[in-house]
Structure formats: C-alpha cells, structure tokens
Amino acid sequence: MNTLYWIWSIILSISILMVLTRFIKGPALPDRVISLDMFTTITTGLLVLISFFLNNYILLDVSLVYAVLAFISVLIMARYLESTNEEEK
Amino acid sequence: MKNTQGMVNAFFAFLLVVILGIFFFNAINQPLGNGLVLNKDNPDLSKRVSIHYILKNVHNAEDYLAQHKSSYFRNRDKVKSSNLEFGKTKNAESGSANEVTSIVVNYRGFDTLGEVTVLFISILGLGMLLHENKKKYWAKPSLIVRTGANFLFPFIVLFGVYVFVHGHLTPGGGFPGGTIIASAALLLILGLKDFKNKLTMTKIIESLAGLTFAGLGLVGLFTNGSFLTNFLPSGTMGLLVSSGITALIYIAVGIKVAAELSSGIMEMNGGGEE
Amino acid sequence: MIVLIYLSAIVMIISALYAVYAKDLLVSVVALGINSLIVSVLFFLMHAPDVAITEAAIGAGLSTAIFVFAIKHTERKE
C-alpha cells in the first residue's frame, strides 16, 4: 500500500506542476482563470485521496465545499470581462 | 531613487521570510518527546490551572493527582479516562462530538460573542461609507448562466444550512455555513436579468439573530447564576438533539453571518434600496 | 507526506511573488485565489478540518468577489 501511495502522489504532483506552467506562461487573462479552475478540480481529488490513506473519513467535508464553490470564482471573473467590453462600446 | 527603495524593501522582506522559515522547520523536525517546557523529572502540576484540561476527564483530575503526584508525564498513556462513544455515552460534560465546537461555544463562549460584535461593527462601517453608490453595470447574462444560477441556488443554500445545523457533529460550524449562503447570494447578483437589492429585510433578520444569541446568555444568567451557562441537559452524544445550547447558538450565529455578508455584497454592488 | 509539504511551499512562493509584482491587477486576484487554495491544503495535512473549511469558503468565494468589485470602482492597470 505504501508504494501505491507514493506513485499516486507523484502523478498528481506532476499534473499540478503542468497547470502551474500554464499560469506562468499564459499571455492573456483567460489562460490564468482556466488554470485556477483546474487547480480547484485537481485539489478536490487530492484531498479525497489523502483522507483515504489517513483512514480518517471525517475529513471528506472539505472536498464538498470546493466542489460547490469552484463555479462561483470563475463566474465572477468572466462576468467582469464581459461587462467591461460591452460598456466600452 | 525609486528603484533603490524597492530593492531595500525586498531585502528586508526576504530576511523576514528566512527567519520565519527557520522557526517553521525547527517546529516540524523536532523529535517527539514528552514535552519541551516543563521539567521532566519533577513537575509540580497541582499549582497550574491547566491541569484540569490536560487530563481527559475533569472530574477525575484531583483524584489522579493525589494518587500519582509526579510521574504523570511518564504514564500519560495509561490515564483512566471515560470512553466516549458515538451514540452511546450519556450525560458527558459538554456533550458535543466535535471538540472544536465545545471549546468555541461552551468553554470560551464569551469570546465568540466578541467576534460576532467585531463582524457587526466592520459591516456597519462598510455600509456607512458606501451609502450613495451608483448601480454597477452588468451585461445581459447568456442562457447558460441564467439557467445555472436558477438551478444551483437552492442546493447551495441547503448545503450551507447543513454545515451550521450539524456544527456539533461534523467539522464546520456557524461561520463557514454563513459564508456559503452569502456565496449563494453572490450567485444571484451575477446570474439574474434584473436584480433588485433587498436591504431592509436582510438587516432586520441579522439584528434578530444577534438578539437571540445575547438572549440565550441572559436566560442562563437568570436561571443558573452566570452568563452563557448550559442550562439544557447534555443528552446522548452523537444525536442531533444533544449537547445543550450549542446547537441553538450555532444556528443563531450562522443566520447572522449569512445575512451580514449578503448585505455587505449587495451594498458593494450599489443602487440603494429598491 | 513530506513531498506534499515541499510541493505546497513551492507553489505558494510562486503565486505570492506573482501577487505582489504583477502589473495587471486581475492577475493578482487570481494569484491570491491560488494561494488561499494551497493554504487550505496545508491546514488539511495538519488534521484541522474546521479551519480548512472556513479558509476554503472565504478564499474561493468572497475574497475574489470583493476584490473584483473594488477594481470595478477604480481602474485596472497598476
């Protein structure tokens, strides 16, 4: 079980580093907003995995909060960009 | 001239981060032992107030100290504490399954009243500064945003109410539950075609919830003799109806924080009362 | 477990440097969102679920919203 834990942690760490590369490189703002959304989704899965290996099922409530609130922070950035473009016209 | 000032600031910030990093790594890598502060060979614990909270059962503290005197730290794992089981223990001292809730509401309840007052004063200041504010311009939302906001709003409110009603059983409590309901109000501002502020009713709900919290403390004062005592019985640990007034206080705090933060977001949106 | 703590430290340092030194203020807001997420993961690794839920609810929803409203009042370039 210990080796499986190491392998899954390393795979998720590589995916987090790839998403961070898009946050650093992206020339426009929507690239960075998409990287924030992907961070939230990967973190939800990572927290469920850690609570499974620590044998402590009371810690699963944190992933529920992120699954609900990931939508709202992307929505407000998108609505701000939409309103600024239309007001200039 | 401006560039050298920026470099000096960056150097001091880096120095602060290095010092804090040294403290942090020492705290993580210290060897597990019997405690760092007290003298291990001859501790005199009977003069410390905190002895009643180190041992797991407050009623056995004096018996244990009279029996064992100074070998407490070596035999700490063999302390005879009452076994707390989810669903079976009756009439424990504070009765809630979540340890953080029993400290925040029961043992240190007066500090929670101070925190609620600080939140109230800060939202009051925000309302006074943004009194005459023009309404913000939002573009017309597309079909996906409108459908998503109309569909998701009741589920987010239900989840927020679950978090603060079960505050004494699962992690969470009044403050995050109220924040989740305020996020649902933010979803309505962004997703509807024409949104009108409803500030009067929100502020009346907030004031009534704050009065309930102080009123529960006053009932404790008149029946038992001190402010915020637990005048209801503890019951069985793990049921929804248990642990005295902790559930009632967290319901009042949850409704108050939800109404407060929703009115703060609506005032930043602007437009006044319509 | 140690690998996760070091990884969180690297991501937090990069996002905090972006939050301070970016010229466009909305990039700072996104970097603060990422910072709050990683702080919540660190609280989770130290077995403290109450604090992690509170930090998640405040950082993901309300803090970003209040900053975007403030930028809408004033201007976007530094």
Which characteristics define this entry?
heterotrimer; A: 89 residues; mainly alpha; elongated; B: 274 residues; 2 domains; 9 helices; 58% helix; extended
Model description:
The complex is a heterotrimer of chains A (89), B (274) and C (78). Chain A has helices at 2-25, 29-53, 61-88. Chain A is mainly alpha-helical. Chain A has one domain (2-88). In chain A, helix 2 (29-53) runs antiparallel to helix 3. The longest helix of chain B has 27 residues, at 2-28. The model of chain C has no long low-confidence stretch (mean pLDDT 91). Chain C has one domain (2-73). Helix content of chain C is 85%, strand content 0%. Chains in contact: A-B, A-C, B-C. The B-C interface holds B 28, 98, 100, 136, 163, 171-173, 175-176, 179-180, 182-183, 186, 261, 265, 268-269 and C 5, 49-50, 53-54, 56-58, 61-62, 65-66, 69-70, 72.
Brief synopsis:
Chain A contains 3 helices and no strands. With 89 residues, chain A is mainly α.
Number of helices of chain A: 3
The largest chain-to-chain contact, stated as pair and per-chain residue counts, equals:
A-C, 34 and 33 residues
The percentage of residues in β strands of chain A lies in: under 5%
The total count of strands of chain B amounts to 0
Kindly report how far apart the N and C termini of chain A lie: 60 Å
Indicate the structural class of chain B. mainly alpha
Low-confidence stretches of chain A: none
Number of helices of chain B: 9
Query: How many distinct beta strands of chain A?
Result: 0
Give the biggest beta sheet of chain A.
Answer: none
Number of domains of chain B: 2
SSE arrangement:
The complex is a heterotrimer of chains A (89), B (274) and C (78).
Chain A: H1 2-25, H2 29-53, H3 61-88
Helix pairs in contact in A: 1-2, 2-3
Chain B: H1 2-28, H2 51-54, H3 61-68, H4 99-107, H5 109-129, H6 143-165, H7 174-191, H8 199-224, H9 246-269
Helix pairs in contact in B: 4-5, 5-9, 6-7, 7-9, 8-9
Chain C: H1 2-21, H2 25-45, H3 49-73
Helix pairs in contact in C: 1-2, 2-3
